[in-house]
Q: What sequence folds into this?
């Protein structure tokens, strides 16, 4: 995949937030999403159509606004208003909206823009307006290659989200996951990557060998995952730009449960030998391996805190699966879960304050969050089977997978990706071409 | 003192009796004892009378009496087939998290491997692989299916 280069070349004006009347509270479940009007972007005269493969994309202004709308609706924080109620034309609205018209349809915020496509360039300008205060809040322009038009829409969505919530967005991101097909007793699994909204799906492996648990490097385009290539379960690295794969956990046993350190320089993983799994790190530059846990129990599913100082992991040293936290040198191990049932798959929030987990109790599976000392546990969703949460880069949303019950012929079985807000609201199916599992959310691409 | 001793003995006998009753009461529903599969529906044979697999309780990797019996028969047969080597596949049911199940499968396969080794089979003839919950034999989402999937299977590697 070619490196995507963006230029943000004009910054018109950022009004101070003190003047803004419109804002979105994301700390609670938002039952009253903000009504927002996303005007189709006005297409400047002389603009060409975009050729994408053998497809020709006309009315790019409308398409970009639709992508933004879908992002807003799925976030649960915004209610994009129907375009047929818009009175003002896109070109005039972009210059100076008639705020009374937009107030009339109950819009509190308005997004306008214009777009110009030339042979090899896409230029997009957008503005966010506070309808109630009758003010411009953000104005930005981007220039990139025409094929990047969806990313422009995601970046605009992120800018609006950031301006209205005060937090970074998560729309210009991708999801890597395991695409599943075939019988339950013989699943075919491939690595797949897509934009956060499901567009631009690509399969990264062919399905010849079992692959599991892909995870993004937070700093670059590398992915680590478990592959059963040649029937040897080992941790691999994959460069999603070049397609180059290499084994990194080639120890005499099974390596699994890999994740990157927050600086992207190490892989932390489990190594199982002679019936015992311990946690190791490998420095990707020096290939120096360090053993962090040394216990006869199963130690797995390690995940670093964003400052790299701590690691949470899963261990059954107490007899059953529980979550533990230790310093990143392996010292000072503390158990943090004491609730009924089992706890697994701890993942440290990118904001640092929470750990997401899977809890199993009385035959039900829960996705939950708690503080990093184990206090303040909140269960967000209950189901027959679900696990493996992964955080959006801003720490507001979790993506995970869910499986359904099946009969002895495997009928009724499905594996699907779902997302839910940290608040426990806004649970949504993340649509994929085939069944899917083990999702991992990337960092913001345009950071 | 003597009385006290006798009382203690009686107490021990009574307690043992309770323990035995508890064992007898343990659920035997069709093809399961507790939640360990005891049937032969999914079992294949390495040779006549030599079962290829053993079954485990939920989240456990301890070998039951029946499992040890199966593995001793495997070992006896392996000793006669000195040129063959084997892979022991460890599996878990679908009711656990994926990564933990990979570790659990590895632990189960190694429990079987260790037992075979104590009966004289060289570790160099036995390799181990865990599939976690990735390769169930029974697709069902019910206790019987799960009990059939919690297993380690000995397969010929050459």
A:
């Amino acid at each position: 995949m070619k490196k995507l280069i963006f230029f943000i070349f004009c910054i018109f004006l950022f009004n101070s937030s003190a003047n803004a009347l419109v804002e979105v509270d994301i700390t609670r479940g938002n039952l009253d999403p903000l009504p927002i009007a996303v005007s189709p972007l006005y297409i400047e005269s002389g603009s060409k159509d975009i050729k994408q493969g053998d497809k020709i994309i006309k009315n790019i202004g409308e398409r970009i606004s639709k992508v933004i709308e879908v992002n807003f609706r799925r976030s649960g924080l915004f209610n994009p208003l129907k375009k047929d109620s818009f009175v003002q034309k896109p070109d005039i609205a972009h210059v100076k909206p008639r705020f009374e018209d937009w107030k009339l349809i109950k819009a509190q915020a308005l997004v306008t823009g214009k777009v110009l496509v030339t042979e090899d360039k896409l230029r997009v300008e957008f503005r966010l307006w506070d309808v109630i205060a009758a003010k411009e809040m953000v104005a930005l322009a981007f220039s990139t290659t025409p094929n990047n038009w969806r990313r422009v829409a995601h970046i605009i969505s992120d800018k609006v989200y950031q301006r209205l919530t005060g937090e970074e967005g998560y729309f210009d991101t991708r999801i890597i996951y395991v695409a599943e097909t075939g019988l339950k007793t013989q699943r075919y699994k491939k690595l797949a990557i897509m934009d956060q909204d499901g567009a631009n799906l690509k399969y990264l492996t062919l399905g010849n060998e079992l692959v599991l648990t892909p995870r993004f490097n937070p700093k670059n385009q590398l992915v680590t995952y478990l592959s059963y290539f040649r029937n040897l379960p080992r941790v691999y690295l994959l460069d999603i730009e070049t397609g180059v794969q290499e084994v990194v956990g080639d120890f005499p046993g099974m390596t699994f449960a890999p994740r990157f350190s927050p600086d992207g320089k190490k892989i932390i993983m489990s190594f199982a030998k002679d019936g015992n799994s311990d946690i190791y790190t490998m420095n990707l530059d020096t290939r120096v391996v360090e053993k962090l846990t040394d216990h006869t129990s199963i130690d797995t599913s390690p995940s670093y805190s964003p400052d790299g100082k701590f690691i949470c992991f899963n261990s059954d040293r107490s007899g059953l699966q529980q979550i533990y936290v230790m310093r990143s040198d392996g010292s000072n191990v503390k158990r943090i879960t004491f609730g009924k049932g089992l706890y697994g798959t701890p993942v440290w929030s990118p904001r640092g304050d929470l750990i997401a987990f899977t809890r199993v109790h009385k035959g039900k599976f829960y996705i939950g969050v708690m503080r990093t000392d184990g206090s303040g546990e909140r269960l967000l969703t209950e189901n027959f089977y679900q696990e493996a949460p992964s955080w959006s880069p801003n720490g507001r949303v979790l993506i995970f997978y869910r499986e359904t019950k099946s009969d002895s012929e495997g009928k009724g079985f499905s594996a699907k990706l779902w997302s839910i807000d940290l608040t426990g609201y806004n649970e949504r199916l993340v649509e994929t071409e085939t069944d899917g599992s083990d999702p991992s959310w990337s960092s913001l691409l345009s950071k | 003192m003597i009385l006290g001793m006798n009382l203690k003995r009686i107490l021990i006998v009574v307690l043992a009796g309770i323990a035995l009753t508890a064992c007898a009461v343990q659920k035997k529903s069709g093809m399961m004892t507790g939640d360990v599969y005891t049937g032969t529906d999914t079992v294949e044979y390495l040779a006549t009378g030599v079962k290829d697999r053993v079954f485990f309780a939920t989240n456990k990797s301890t070998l039951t009496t029946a499992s040890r019996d199966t593995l001793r028969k495997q070992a006896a047969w392996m000793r006669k087939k000195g040129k063959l080597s084997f892979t022991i596949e460890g599996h878990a049911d679908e009711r656990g998290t994926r990564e933990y199940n990979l570790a659990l499968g590895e632990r189960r396969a190694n429990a079987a491997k260790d037992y075979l080794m104590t009966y004289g089979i060289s570790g160099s003839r036995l390799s181990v692989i865990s599939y976690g919950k990735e390769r169930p034999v029974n697709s069902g989402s019910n206790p019987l299916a799960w009990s059939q999937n919690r297993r380690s299977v000995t397969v010929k590697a050459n």
About this structure: Helices of chain B lie at 2-25, 65-80, 98-118, 143-149. Chain B has one domain: 29-156. The domain at 29-156 of chain B is CATH 3.30.1330.60 (60s Ribosomal Protein L30; Chain: A;).
